[in-house]
Amino acid sequence: MLSLLALVPVLTVFLFLVVLKWPAKSAMPLAFVVTVGLSLGVWEVPFNQVLAATVDGLITALTLLYIIFGAILLLNTLSESGALVTIRKGLSNVSPDRRVQAVIIAWLFGSFIEGAAGFGTPAAVAAPLLVGLGFPAMAAVVCALIIQSTPVSFGALGTPILVGVSSGLGEGKLAEVTQVVGSDWETVIFTIGTKVALLHLLTGFFIPLLMVSILTRFFGKNRSFREGLRAWKFAFFAALAMTIPYYLTAITLGPEFPSLFGGLIGLAIVVWGARRGWFLPQDGIWDFDKPETWDPEWVGNLRLNDPAHLPIKMPAWKAWTPYLLVGLFLILTRLDALPLKGWLNGATIGLDNLFGSGINVSVAPLYLPGTIFIAVVLLTGLIHRMNRTAFRKAWSDTFRTTGLASVALLFAVPMVQVFIGSTEGAAGYDSMPIELAKGVADAVGSVWPIFAPSIGALGAFIAGSNTVSNMMFSLFQFGVGTRIGADPTWIVALQAIGGAAGNMICVHNVVAASATVGLINKEGMIIRKTLMPTAYYALFGGALGYTILNGFAFHIGTGIILLTLAVFIYLLVRFGGTPPGLPETRSANKGS
Asked: Which of 194, 289, 473, 485 has the fewest CB atoms inside 10 Å of its own CB, making it the most exposed?
């Protein structure tokens, strides 16, 4: 019964946001009220603790809005300076095919930004950039969210592992963990990180293909999966170009750099290869239909200068400099070896023991990606020699767009904090997410590894963070592993990949990414489009884990793996070839 009650807030979000298609600004206040009611009435959490968790959530929501503001401001600044014209032309020279552009910007550039910053920043960068290139706003958001999977476990220089898993397992201070593992703590975390990387390497291989197939199915003129499947060679090329360096980095350097190096190396390889026509789709250049024919649901209120009507006056190096500076500044401010991280984190605003609850809240505004975005915007104004009118317009447009996202976030994040913080109530129950996970574990028993990623995904869906999901569930997952006689470090690794996959559907990631392109009140529609890749990631990853733990004999794990591979092979054989009568396009793409 406790597990069912703990499920109610999640079902409320899913029912009203996804099924009934309510906008997040309406669904999330309702979910907040339901969560507060359960926390006070069933879990009997003190009112001051619920109030403190709500304030904590409000402050977190404001930090997210700050990041959103910075990302939109950067895009508006590049639009006003004319840099977007050059960027769009440059990517068209790599390939005018929208499938190729989505893979390069979302999958590869997004993975690099994830490795540097994490916490939803890739979507805030990639989605508006795709819109600036001519993608419908909803298509840009869906692509940016789908890649919030494979690179996420090692985002922000490994924070979901180094902080999320480590803190969740007690940072080596819990005897039951250290006794089972029998190794020093640094080796334990390194070992879990390599297992996470292997699971991502195998599961993430299909993510670029899923992304372009969803792109063509929901946003193409013909509404067809097959147009995305015909890009399979390029999708697999990009997948390997990112995941192989990613895995090699994890097993040699540890959890800090896999996504950063994987994204950067993959970007260099794929752009170089695409310019030479390697693995480009052979079914013609795929593009969206004319904007006037687009479904109004796809279009946001972000209005950019139309590159088709602006002259190209800026060299490529100058146009791309702001994004290069974002990546550089994010890296420099997140490396422990440099003093910048300590200096920026030292400027902290904090509230201790809110309402006597014991909850402490602190924010380091200079360390937030929003500050880096704004700093780059100021430098861009100088580098691009913008006039005051254009610069002022970029700021005013940004304030207007950001304000539209505020209502949803100001209820979504407090709801999450109340849900997670439902501990130490007079009823004596564990927190709602733990009670929910315990119910699933009791129901499935020895086949738990298949379900372990789903719990991680649920945690990220609720909390909006792989790091927080790992903090909530790592010790629980470890305990389940020991109870069923499985290597608990593999179970924790499955938790981590599920927590990464859950970022594709978590509400405030969706709200935040949508806000950067001015797409408001369409959150449920977006989640319905990202549910399929999320389900694939959790199920296939769980099947891999179950097979690793139980051997390669025929069982439920190998059955799921073989069935999934059979479906992909059938679809590629059936629909992945070049249609008869179409000319080869390699030379056309190469010469563009």
From this structure: 485
Coil/strand/helix, residue 348: coil
Helix segments in 384-517, DSSP class H: 388-403, 406-420, 432-444, 448-463, 466-483, 488-501, 507-516
d(CA 68, CA 373): 10
pTM for the complete prediction?
A: 0.81
User: 3-state SS of the chain: helix, strand, coil percent to 5?
Assistant: 75, 0, 25
Q: Quick: pLDDT tens for 376-398.
A: 999 999 999 888 888 888 888 88
d(Cα 66, Cα 71) in Å, to the nearest integer? 9
* 349 phi and psi angles, rounded to 5 deg: -105, 125
Residue 362 β-bridge partners: 350
| Residues paired with residue 363 on neighbouring β-strands, in sequence order | 349
Low-confidence ranges of the chain (pLDDT < 50): 306-310, 584-592
DSSP 310: S
Strand, coil or helix: 465: coil
pLDDT value of residue 587: 38
What are the Cα distances from residue 142, in Å, to 5, 441, 511, 515?
Answer: 31, 32, 12, 13
Residue 363: which H helix or E strand, with range?
strand 361-363
